[in-house]
Design goal:
The chain is mainly alpha-helical. The chain is globular. It has one domain (2-84). 53% of the residues lie in helices and 0% in strands.
Length: 96
């Protein structure tokens, strides 16, 4: 269940992003936008373990991504929706 996942545990801080981005505060905000969107767009009855794996995958895909500050919100939301829709078909085994 989605309610069993505390989204605040996975949110980024500027310290998490400083090594990879010129503006670590903005990068943390962008990553947190994606993480919140992933959580919000997930089905209410999603399995806790599954949502945790998806959030971990999201972190791994974006925290070092140099394009993070260049991609607009709509494109990020499209990525979120695509990831949720294709999770079962994708090979994400390295992230869980």
């Amino acid at each position: 269940m989605k309610d069993n996942v505390d989204i605040h545990v996975v949110l980024a801080t500027p310290e998490d992003m400083g090594e990879y981005h010129e503006d670590p505060s903005e990068a943390a905000e962008r990553l947190n936008f994606i993480l919140h969107a992933m959580y919000d767009h997930a089905e209410e009855d999603i399995e806790t373990d599954r949502l945790e794996r998806i959030l971990h995958y999201t972190w791994e895909q974006w925290h070092q991504n140099s394009s993070l500050l260049e991609i607009d919100d709509d494109e990020l939301l499209d990525w979120v929706d695509h990831t949720l829709a294709t999770w079962d078909d994708a090979d994400n085994s390295e992230f869980y």
